[in-house]
Design a protein that fits this description.
7 helices, single chain, about 30% helix, eight-stranded mixed beta sheet, alpha/beta, globular
Length: about 290
């Protein structure tokens, strides 16, 4: 049965986040006044990386159960594709750091956050928040190139970790690829394998189209028909493994055996929840 490999420091798992940083990510997310797509994306990634780090912590030690990479993609003013690595000391060709190294390169910001006061209300507190990804948006969306770079990186990781839990690639975008159809490169990523199964590709679709959010659909007909990119993003999303479906069901989310790792227009809470479910696909830590 695939996707059951134990995750250890000898056989870690990996997450590669692909972040659309094109100009359209500066637009507001539908149904969420004042919330830009790029802000939602950065906040969600920062939160989930902090969660993954805490999941790997034993006292003061952060155990290297995961390798993490973050690639941003856009173009310059001439349309030339740009793929950059967000983690200090990495490159697009070598994007991964172990989770303990990820913790070491985090920036720390003080932010005002609202939390429960324990009596049904909210209180505003100052918290120190680790930051890895800052909002950024300019020019075009070379998603094909981003997937091409991701393919090479994941292919190398699989070669070096043939017995590990399969890699998980999570693409956060508004779906508007400017350099062709990314499905071919997406399929090549999903065709990569370890002994425990095929690589998983999940997609977070942040759209300005006014439509209700959709989470974990099992057929394209459930998606908004007024967003021409939704079906493409759905087709290049992997079916959720059993561990992810069980996690979703425990949160009272509706999933089936054919549900895909795809969400459309999720708010920040649902977006973080999706990323948590996606990363918990790799959860057998030893």
């Amino acid at each position: 049965m695939p996707y059951t490999a134990d995750i250890s420091r000898l056989n870690p798992a990996c997450f590669l986040f692909l972040i659309d940083q094109s100009g359209s990510m500066d637009q507001l997310l539908s149904g969420q006044p004042g919330q830009r797509k790029m802000d939602q994306a950065a906040d969600a990634i920062n939160r989930i990386l902090d969660t993954v780090a805490q999941r790997c912590s034993q006292g003061l030690e952060v155990r290297d159960y995961f390798d993490i990479g973050i690639l941003g993609y856009n173009t310059d003013g001439t349309g030339e594709p740009i793929v950059t690595s967000a983690l200090s000391g990495t490159s697009p060709d070598q994007p991964f750091l172990s989770i303990s190294q990820v913790v070491d390169v985090a920036e720390v910001e003080e932010r005002q956050v609202k939390e429960s006061d324990g009596a049904g209300g909210l209180v505003e507190l100052t918290r120190r928040i680790p930051i890895w990804l800052h909002p950024h948006a300019q020019y075009g969306t070379p998603m094909c190139r981003a997937f091409e770079v991701a393919l090479r990186a994941v292919e190398q990781w699989v070669t070096e970790h043939p017995e590990s839990f399969p890699p998980i690639v999570i693409n956060v975008s508004d779906g508007m690829a400017s350099d062709g159809n990314p499905e071919s490169n997406a399929r090549k990523i999903m065709d990569l394998e370890t002994s425990d199964g095929s690589a998983l590709l999940f997609n977070v679709h942040l759209s300005e189209v006014p439509a209700l959010p959709v989470q974990y659909p099992d057929q394209a007909e459930l998606l908004p028909q007024n967003d021409e990119y939704a079906s493409t993003m759905f087709r290049m999303s992997s079916v959720l493994p059993e561990s992810s479906r069980s996690q979703a069901q425990s949160l009272d989310l509706q999933v089936s055996e054919n549900s895909r790792g795809y969400v459309f227009n999720a708010d920040l809470t649902a977006l973080v929840q999706f990323l948590d479910i996606g990363t918990r696909a790799a959860s057998n830590l030893h």
